[in-house]
């Protein structure tokens, strides 16, 4: 079973390979620092849903552009 230390190390290695995602990680860390521990998973779920919604809206805009509308 992966420990918290293992997960953090893996995350940090991932961010070294993908530094463009550091801003998103900083946003996550900031929100979670203000979130009670038992609500962290729910909070991450809400953040993911929000980002997916934004991505969907941008894809819709792109589709309209590509269709010439």
What topology emerges from the helices and strands here?
Elements: H1 4-17, H2 22-33, H3 40-67
Q: How much of the polypeptide forms β-strand, as a percent range? A: under 5%
Rounded to the nearest angstrom, the radius of gyration is 16 Å
Overall pLDDT: 96
Tally of separate domains:
1
- Main pleated-sheet profile: none
| DSSP E strands, number | 0
Can you describe this structure?
The chain has 69 residues and is mainly alpha-helical. It has one domain (4-67). 78% of the residues lie in helices and 0% in strands. It has 3 helices and no strands. The radius of gyration is 16 Å and the shape is elongated. It starts with a helix and ends with a helix. The model has no long low-confidence stretch (mean pLDDT 96).
Question: Descriptors for this entry?
Answer:
3 helices, 69 residues, mainly alpha, elongated, 78% helix
Brief account:
This protein is an all-alpha fold and 69 residues long. It contains 3 helices and no strands.
């Amino acid at each position: 079973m992966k420990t918290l230390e293992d997960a953090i190390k893996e995350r940090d290695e991932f961010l070294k390979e993908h530094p463009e995602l550091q801003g998103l990680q900083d946003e996550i860390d900031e929100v979670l620092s203000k979130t009670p521990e038992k609500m962290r998973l729910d909070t991450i779920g809400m953040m993911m849903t929000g980002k997916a919604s934004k991505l969907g809206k941008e894809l819709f805009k792109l589709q309209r552009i590509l269709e010439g509308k």
